Amino acid sequence: MFKKVIIKNDERGLLFKKGSYIKLLQPGVYRHLAFTDDSVILQHVAKRFAVPNKELNLFLQDSQLAEELTIADVQDYEYVLHFEDGKFHSLLTAGLYAFWNVMKKHTFIRVDIRNPEIPAEIDRSLLAKLQGYTQILEVASYESGLLFYNNMLQRELRPGRYYFWKGPTSVQLKTIDLRQLQLDMTGQEIMTEDKVTLRLNFVCQYKVINPLKVFQIKSFEEQIYILLQLILREYVGTLKLDDLLRMKQEIAQFVLTRLNEQKEHYGVEFISAGLKDIILPGDIKDILNTVLLAEKKAQANLIMRREETASTRSLLNTAKLMDDNVTLYRLKELEFVEKICEKIGTISLTGGGNMLEQLNSLFSAKSVEKR
């Protein structure tokens, strides 16, 4: 009795005797005695070469078999991209792999994942098929990125998308905003030269011009805040309250100049600065309001006296003109009568004499009657 084994054109056979590999069998028909310990394991040449529970090196000792296999030996620090007939097939991690080269051509791209950045020669369209083995880091258009391997700074990254292997080297990205930023200082208490404690609200705008410098400064925004605080104290502490209120427009220019003296050290450029508010203590505010009210009253009194003087001078000039001109005097009488007529229905004048004297007598008589 025979056991019949048929090996097709797209197959190869591996002959075993008592569990030990003997040789490679090419396509064809084979017969073995039924009572023998011979066995044949079929391998499809379109698939990866693998025999369950057998080491690959056992078969590589067969030179005939080795000629029909393409071997990929992947080290612990490598990834290997496997291509079949120029098309991506799979990613190989550490291990020994064998592929039949009978019907397909196998090529490989080796990458050393100790250098985690994915090289440019690897088509970026493949990365979607490599999820789990790669990571993507992005730097926005308004940012600068700092690249770190195992917490060691490598270089500065410009805006864009960057691809890295996941492996023994840890990759980190830290980004720094390059847009115009604003620092607000609110309610900062400062004492003037004349020992008046007031509060200032101040604001300044700046942009990062050297990301590496900024990264080297711990608690960067806090240090910028303290720098602004010290400059304000330096300026305000040398002025009395009245001088400060008079020169408050000059604070911004002074602070901006002093800040930009430190721009190389901090890696930033200060664009503008401005004083928003000066908040005075309640008692000082009351005193200033009292002074302001007294000043305004004095100004009002001065204006009233000036107007009274001008009015008196005008009356004196009019009187002099009437003394020198009888016609003008008569016109003034008529004007006086016209004004009286606007408020009184009927006035009867009898007898001769001066009209103004009669009117005066009339009004004097009415005043007595009212009493």
Let me know the largest β-sheet. Answer: 3 strands, antiparallel
Average pLDDT, all residues = 84
The figure for the number of domains is 5
- What is the helix/strand order? EEEEEHHEEEEEEEEEEEEHHHHHEHHH
* Anisotropy-based shape: rod-shaped
Q: How helical, in percent, are the residues?
A: 25-40%
Strand order of the largest sheet: 3-2-5
Ends apart, CA distance between termini = 163 Å
Strand content: 35-45%
Rg, please?
Answer: 52 Å
Q: For this entry, what is the oligomeric state of its chains?
A: single chain
Unreliable spans are: none
- The overall strand count is 18
User: What's the number of helices?
Assistant: 10
Structural class by secondary-structure content:
alpha+beta
Description:
With 371 residues, this protein is of the alpha+beta class. The protein folds into five domains: 2-112, no CATH class; 128-177, no CATH class; 181-280, Tetrahydropterin Synthase, Chain A; 283-324; 326-371, no CATH class. 35% of the residues lie in helices and 35% in strands. It is built from ten helices and 18 strands. The protein has helices at 56-60, 63-67, 211-215, 220-236, 241-246, 249-260, 263-266, 282-324, 326-341, 355-370, and strands spanning 2-7, 11-17, 20-25, 28-33, 38-44, 69-74, 78-84, 87-92, 95-100, 106-112, 134-139, 143-149, 152-157, 160-165, 171-177, 181-191, 197-208, 268-279. A three-stranded antiparallel beta sheet has the order 3-2-5, with no helix packed on it. The radius of gyration is 52 Å and the shape is rod-shaped. The protein starts with a strand and ends with a helix.
